[in-house]
Structures are given as C-alpha cells and as structure tokens.
Amino acid sequence: MAIAAIRPPVPHNDVTERARIWRRFAGDEWDAFDRLPASIRRRMHEHAYDAWAVNALILWRLFRRQLASSARGERRLSNHLDDCERIEREAFAAAYARDWGGTLPHLAAGASVLRYDAEARRTDRPTD
Predict the structure, then answer these.
(1) What is the pLDDT of residue 37?
(2) What is the pLDDT of residues 58-108, one digit of tens each?
(3) ∠ CA 50-54-55 to the nearest 5 degrees?
(4) Each residue of 10-25: pLDDT tens digit?
(5) What is the dihedral of CA 57, 61, 67, 69, to 10 degrees?
(6) Measured distance CA(63)–CA(23) in Å, rounded
(7) Residue 47: pLDDT band by 50, 70, 90 thresholds?
(8) How far apart (Å, rounded) are the C-alpha atoms in residues 115 and 18?
(9) CB neighbours of 94 closer than 8 A, spacing ≥ 6?
(10) Contact indicator for 104, 90 with CB cutoff of 8 Å
(11) Alpha-carbon span 118 to 73, nearest angstrom
(12) 122-125: long-range contacts (C-beta < 8 A, 24 or more apart)?
C-alpha cells in the first residue's frame, strides 16, 4: 500500500504534531533569528525541530522584561526550548506509535539529538 493512500499529502514538510500543540506567530523568521542572543541562536540551531524564531524572539523579550535581566531571560528561554523539544519528541513518538503501531525508530535506537560540543559536556569522559 502506498503511503499516499494512508496519509494525505500536506503542503509543507512539517508532518509532526506541532500544529496541534503550538501556535506559530507570523513574522520574518530570519530577522527574528538575527535579533536573538548568540546563545539562543546556537540552541535553536541544535533544536531537533524548527524552533520558530519569531516565537523565540517574542518569548525572549517577555522573559527579559519579567526577569529584568537579559542573561536570566536567555537562561529561561534556553530551558523553555529544552522543554518544548522534549514535549515535541514525546508527541511525535505518540503519533508515530498511533499511526504505525511501533516505536519511533530514533527512540528504539536510543539515538540522541546531536549537539555541538557534546563530547566536552559528557561527564563520563576521562580527563587527560
């Protein structure tokens, strides 16, 4: 049976559960990305899914105002992105199990999200 017979074609390549769980704000994604702090841009680049720069910029500005500190706002947004990524992976895995009756291959393989400097952050790596 062809995949098209199982799932209708979509006009974009994001076929995850994201539209069901998040609201995407309109705006210039590249401009929003450029306005974010470097640490947040890097974290978004490492995100398992597209982290939506306009949404991130709105949140960073909100967190910066709430905490009266750019640094604390960055930390809160970074933690928020971690939470969102976890929620997205869980939703995607649940949808995959529902649609295909199995474990998402990435989870079954024990694969992790690739991050820059992952080796440097590992605590079990012996030091020289």
Answers:
(1) 95
(2) 999 999 999 999 999 999 999 999 999 899 889 989 988 998 999 988 889
(3) 75
(4) 555 566 677 788 888 9
(5) 90
(6) 18
(7) confident
(8) 21
(9) 17
(10) no
(11) 24
(12) none
Residue (of 58, 50, 48, 49) closest to 26 by Cα position? 58
How far are the Cα atoms of 6, 30, 84 from residue 41, in angstroms, in the given order? 37, 11, 15
* Residue 115 and residue 97 in contact, taking contact as beta carbons nearer than 8 Å: no
8 A C-beta contact, residue 52 and residue 29? yes
In which residue are the tokens 């990524």 written?
85
Q: Give the dihedral sign, CA 33/17/89/83.
A: positive
In 3D, which of 17, 43, 44, 14 has the Cα closest to residue 29? 44
Angle at 81 between CA 75 and CA 83, to 5 degrees: 105
Q: At what angle do helices 53-67 and 70-100 cross, to 10 degrees?
A: 140
